[in-house]
Structures are given as C-alpha cells and as structure tokens.
Amino acid sequence: MTDSSPQGIFLSYRREDAAPYARLLQFQLSERFPDAQVFMDLDSIEAGLDFADVIAEAVDSCAVLVALIGRQWATLADEAGHRRLDDPDDFVRFEVQAALERGVRVIPVLVDGASPLRLQHLPSELHKLARLNAFELSYGRYQYDAERLIDLIQRVLAEAPGASAVHQSPSAPAGPGPTVPRAEGADLRAARLLTEAEGIAHSLTDEGKKAAALSGIAQALAATDPDHAAQLFTDAERIGQSITDVEKAGALTEVAQALAAIDPDRAERFADSLTEEYPKAPALYGVVVALADTDPDRAESIARSIPDEDLVAKALAAVAAALAATDPERAEGIADSLDFEPYEIEVLCGLAKALAATDPGRADQVFTDAESIARSITDDFFKAWTLSDVAQALATLDPERAERLARSITDEAWEAWGLGGVAAALAPTDPDRAERIVHSLTFEPAKAAALQNVAQALAATDPDRAERLAHSNTDEEMKAAALSDVAQALAAIDPDRAERLAHSITHEPAKVSALCGIAKALTATSP
Fold first, then answer.
1. Alpha carbons 287 and 289: distance in angstroms, whole number
2. N or C: which terminus of the chain carries fewer CB neighbours within 10 A?
C-alpha cells in the first residue's frame, strides 16, 4: 500500500447500467469534498500503462470504493458472448476485487431497481461483496438517498487515517445527526434531471424513440460534459443503425439534427457515411435544418448534395426560410428555383412574415403572390395544403384575412388544419380568439394538433392557460408534448413548478425532452 493517507473516493460502475448515477455522484462528491480525489473512468488508461497497476494505485489512495450495481452489472457480456464478470481482466471486477483484498471500505449501491447480488452469481474473489449490506439509490427519491450515501462516505473519510487533510464544503453539516436534504444549486439540479432523463431513455423499448431521446440528452450535456455527450451520440447512432423498419430514417434524422447543433462536421460525416439512400437523404436533410439559421451557405451546399430530389427541394426551402429575414433577395431567388409549388409557397410565406415588420407593403404583395400560386394549383389536395399554409403565415399580419382564407378551403380537414395554424399564430397576441377558434374545430386530429400548438405558443407568456389547454387535449402524445414545452418555458422563472410538471408527464419521450429542456435552462442561468 502507498505511504500517502487514503482519502480518495473510487466510483466503480459499468457504463451500460449506471453511468448517469456515477456522473451525478462524482459531481456531488467533488462539491461536498473539494480536497478528496474522486476516481472514475479508469478504463480510459493511456497507452503503455498497466491497467492493473493504475487501478491498484488508485484504490490504494482511497478510503472508500462505491460499487454502483445496476440491473446488468453481473450479466453483461462481451462481444464474444462471455460474461464480463468471469474475466479476471474485467475492469469493474478488478476494481472491486482490489478494494476487497486491500481492506478498503466497499459500499455496494443498488441503482435503477437492481436486485441484491447472490453468492452463486459471483466469482469466488467477489463473494464477500454479496455479504456486504447494500445501499439503494433510486430516481424517485434520489436527493434523499444520495444525501444518506454521501453522509456515510463522510463518516468513512472522517475515520480514515489523515482525515484532517480533507475538509468538507461550507454547506456540509459539521457532525453526525439526522440527514436533511440540502438545497440544490442549479448545476446539481440540472445534472440530476439529466441523469433521470438518461435513465428513462435507456429504458425505452422503442429503438427509434430511444435513439432520439439519447441524442437530445447528448445535446443538453454538450456544454458541461462533452465526453459523455459524445458517447451518447455514438450510442444513438448505433441504435439508429440497428433499426430495420421504416422508423430507421426518422431516428437517424433526429440523431443527425441534434448532432449538427453542436458538431456539424461530425453530423455531416455521419450522414454521408450512411450507404442506403434512405435514410441517408433524410439524415442530410436533418443536418440542413439544424444549420440553416447559423450557416446557410453550408446548409445550401449540403441540401444540393442530398440524393433525393424531393428532399433537395424541401431542404432548400428550409434554407430559404432561414434567409428570409437577413437576405430576402436570395431567399426569393431560391423560391423561384423550386419546381414543387408547395415548397415555393412555403418559402414565400416565410419571406412575407420576415418582411412584415420592415416592409408591410411588400409583405402583403408576397402573400398575394403566394395565394395566387396556391389557387392556381389544379390538384385539390395540394391546393388545400398550400392555402392552409398561406392562411397560417398570414395570421400575424392580417388575422381577419387569414381566417377568411382558411374558412374558404373546401376540404374539411385542410380547413381545420389551416384554422388551427391561424389560432397558434394568434395565440401570443389574442389568446381568447385563438382558443375560440380551436374549440370551434370538429375535425379531431386537427383540433388535437391545434391545442398542442396553441399551448406551445402560450407557454412562455401565459403558462397557466397553456397548461390548461394542454390538459384538455385528448391525444395523449400531443398533450405530453405541449406539457413538455410549458415545463421548459417555466424553467427559468419557476424551476420547482417546471420540474413538477415534467414529472407529471406519462409519455416518456416527452418527459425526457422536458427534463433536458429544464436542465439546459438551469445551466444557462447558473452563475
């Protein structure tokens, strides 16, 4: 054993089943014990070093090893199908075994509902681990459980040789006594919420939704934990690639779009690496959408490389819409180049909305041109679709004209979609009228979408009304999406209410989105 006093804390865990807990505990332990070194992720040992020596040295410097045990801790297999725990060179096995052999205090912590370890399931070198009293750490009562665990670690450190060398942060209690959960700082709360979101994401059985959820969490983590964010993106890419049905394209598009927001080079490489035209084309489209506002030149270049003519047009329309406010001439030029009229009209509507504040006369003319093109379409479906788009875009400039235009659509479904869009556009400035329009709709799919969109539009300015409208939605998925938006909008002004609302969401992908949004807002406001 080394001569130095053992005052470190070793977090042993498997990334596949306890990484979120390990990251969160590392954050809390480092905050609570600023002078104690917290060891984790020793599987990243640099080339040329003996992993056994490195782990043994780290364990020797620690007073306690916390073994985080998830539901797959004892059963995870390697690429050959062999159980990892049976391999003497398995990092996790070696870490725990080294601590047991050296007399380091080992605290087994069961996470994510894991069952206690059984003697017959462990190699003989780890039999003692099954006899140790295990601690439970759960999402549902995380703050309480974590405080109890950290208080236990505090007592172990206090009893270890050289205890005076390690001091607690000023917020920690001076001595033993009943555990009282401490007030969370914004960073800690954000970390806890992202930990919960990751746990939910890994539990999803729908692989497409899992890939999308992990991408969203990675995007939220990118600023504070880029290494783990990169790993989550890798996991999301792998999961998306493994999908064999029609959902593959949607999942990979979500991954590419989330990745493009923080690492456009990697996002483009990822999309380009896909060998099948579908999902390659949608993935490239996702990159274009993510880049259109910040790098329109690159977005346009990528759009023109998409191996699908329809998606080329759709991607160029997204670029043009992003350019409408800063370079209307270029946006109009792209619109004129599009052969597909619905996309041309989409760009013209975006251009007119952008011009409304600075050149209302020209905006009105562009709207008139868009309506004229829409009415000239001979296909009834596309005519109704495009008139609905024009009505929705026109709502903020001329709500009376927009509502008349929507009600002139002869197709009942598209009339309802158009009116729903008008209501959403009016919501921030005339919520009463928006709500009346929504409740007048009889086509249920459009009404459900309109309730979601109006609630989203009101989330930041009238969260009470937004929440009420969201709860009135009979479509559970749309209700959840709207409640997620309301929770995220509340995060900066009332994080307690935001978190309560997020936890009330029963649709798990929407709950993940809400937790990520709240965490990002907390991180942005943290000093």
1. 5
2. C
CA distances in angstroms from 334 to 296, 337, 343, listed in the order given: 12, 5, 10
Q: Tell me which residue has tokens 């909305």.
A: 353
Q: Quick check: 76 and 68 in contact, CB under 8 A? A: no
Q: What is the per-residue pLDDT across 39-53, written as a single tens digit (0 to 9) for each?
A: 987 655 666 677 788
Q: Rounded to the nearest 5 degrees, what angle is found at the Cα of 274, between the Cα atoms of 273 and 276?
A: 145
Tens digit of pLDDT for each residue in 79-91? 888 999 999 989 9
Report the alpha-carbon angle 227-230-232, nearest 5. Answer: 110
Residue 511's pLDDT is what?
96
User: Residue 150: its pLDDT value, please?
Assistant: 93
53-85 pLDDT per residue, tens: 888 899 999 999 999 999 889 998 888 889 999
Q: What pLDDT does residue 5 have?
A: 59
User: Which of 225, 14, 205 shows the shortest CA–CA distance to 112?
Assistant: 14
Please, are residues 115 and 90 in contact by the beta-carbon 8 Å criterion? Answer: no
pLDDT at residue 211 is higher than 90: yes
% residues pLDDT > 70 (the chain): 92
Higher pLDDT, 5 or 346: 346
CA distances from 346 to 70, 305, 311, 369, 403 (A): 49, 21, 14, 12, 18
State the Cα angle at 28 between 486 and 5, rounded to 5°.
175
* Each residue's pLDDT tens digit, 319-377: 998 998 889 899 989 988 888 889 899 889 989 988 888 889 999 999 999 999 999 99
Residues 6+ apart with CB under 8 A from 465: 431, 435, 458
Residues 6+ apart with CB under 8 A from 23: 191, 195, 225, 228
Residue 327 makes CB contacts below 8 A (sequence gap 6+) with: 296
Domains, in order of start, for the chain:
8-183 (3.40.50.10140)
- Using CA of residue 168, residue 171, residue 177, residue 181, what is the dihedral sign? negative
Paired tokens of 152: 């236990």
Instruction: Find the angle CA(496)-CA(501)-CA(506) to the nearest 5 degrees.
Output: 145
b/e 480-499 (16+ beta carbons within 10 angstroms → b): bbbbbbbbbbbbeeebeebb
Cα–Cα distance, 121 to 311 (Å, whole number) = 53
Nearest CA among 356, 292, 342, 352 for reference residue 313: 342
Average pLDDT (224-240) is 88
What are the DSSP calls for 414-430, one per residue?
Answer: HHHHHHHHHHHHHTTT-
Six-digit token pair at 144?
């309480």
